[in-house]
Amino acid sequence: MVKRGIYATITAITAMCALGACGNTETDSVISEQGESEALHSEEAGAAESDMTEPDTESQDAVNLTNESSIAITIDYDIQSYEDIQNFSYQLFGENLESQNPVLSPVSAYLALAMAAFGSDGSTKAEFDKLLGEGAMVISDDIMNSLPVESKNQILSLANSAWIDDQYLVDENWIGSIKSLLDAEAYQTDLSSTEAMNSMNDWIKTKTNEMINEMLTEPLDSDARLALFNTIYFKAKWSSPFEVESTYQDQFHVNENEQVEVDMMNKYAEGFDYISNDFAEGLIFPYRSDTEKPNLALLALKPKEGMTVREMYNNLNGDVISDMLENKMTSLVNIKLPKFEISFEDSLNDSLMNMGLVDGFDPEKADFSLMGKNVSGNNLYISLVKQKAKIIVDEEGTEAAAATEVMMAEACALFPEEPIDVYFDEPFLYIIMDMDREIPLFMGILDNPAAIKE
Which residues neighbour 153 within 8 Å (Cβ) at sequence distance 6 or greater? Predict the structure, then answer.
């Protein structure tokens, strides 16, 4: 039977009672507790109680705050460029090349971080503006309004949530902004309880269509004050599926000295868009859609002779990809593409600090005063930003999911007469992209299809 491809990703930010994102273990919380209240000296920190949602300290059940905030934000905009999120995407993936079979969702990470950014101030806000771009609010709203789709042949869902400890006084303006712009759900509970852990895992499991069943294996630390989650789930069929009968065992060249046997999909067809430059070549695999938008495709790129896939990637950026897409050539092609299923999980803390988000992780310097305040007056800082992703690619298409946790603790050339052989039988880069905005939804390198990482 014809198979399908699936992707899922979750990004989590944990803040501790000074503000944190998820740490190296699931017990690290998004927001951490700092010491004294001197970091909350700004006027925003002294907001009237009418702007704060009082915590529920009596019940172990999560209180849904989504409909309690009366604050709504409406913005009018005309986006001229998506350069900021494009740059963020390529830089973030570039910080994660050392792992085998890396895969992540830049969009999931961007939206999770945007929730934290909307509550930042001072030097912390300045770092977020540089990291995400000053138009992060506009881009986030545009993504949430335009990308999600559910049809017969394609599903792309995005979901955001904020989980707030019952010892934290959350600002209604912040709740209103993440609800209005990111369609975020907000819950208040005892974050260190087993019930809260189960509720968060259930939310993630539901939003990723059970591709990611468990993000947390233990309750969050008692200092955790905020956990932010973004999930992205994608399932789509190829516009031109591979025939199951044309899939057979073939060699994938991991390196010069190692080959593995894999299920290799094969196709000989015309009408595929071939892309190439001096150091890379590849194909565009469009996904079938019942709607005009979004226009999604998988780009597969392999290095030309004499270069590794990571050396190739270090020469790529949004402008280079855009130039390759502009010069695509419709061709008769002979394709080899391995079936694969990959899971990947890692902390993004070091990556984000290398990209300039430093104060947000510092208990002394982090300023998330626009989110609210701890009942003891202590500051918040990010303790962990973590992402977990899974992707399945086969004859029919792709299925993928990702979750990010922030814890605070076209005209084309005609195809040539001779077919172009494009064999992805060695490590290659793949990007699931919104072709209209040229925003990468998922990025990965397939080093070894046989090394399935659960």
Answer: 236, 237, 287, 288, 289, 290
Confidence tier at 260 by pLDDT (50, 70, 90): very high
Helices marked H in 153-231: 172-182, 194-207
Cα torsion angle, 329, 331, 337, 340, sign: positive
Query: Roughly what angle, to the nearest 10 degrees, separates helices 136-146 and 106-117?
Result: 130
The model's pTM is 0.86
User: In the numeric block, which tokens belong to residue 27?
Assistant: 């017990």
For residues 443 and 93, is the Cβ–Cβ distance under 8 A?
yes
Three-state SS string over 9-41 comes to: EEEEEEEEECCCCCCCCCCCCCCEECCCCHHHC
Q: How many angstroms separate the CA atoms of 120 and 294, rounded?
A: 31
Residue 307 pLDDT > 80, yes or no?
yes
> Position of tokens 């017969």?
152
Give the pairing of strands 397-408 and 329-338.
unpaired
- The structural domains of the chain, ordered by start, are 5-40+81-446 (3.30.497.10)
Output the pLDDT for position 416. Answer: 52
Q: Which residue has the higher pLDDT, 60 or 67?
A: 67
Distance (Å, whole) CA 213 – CA 210: 5
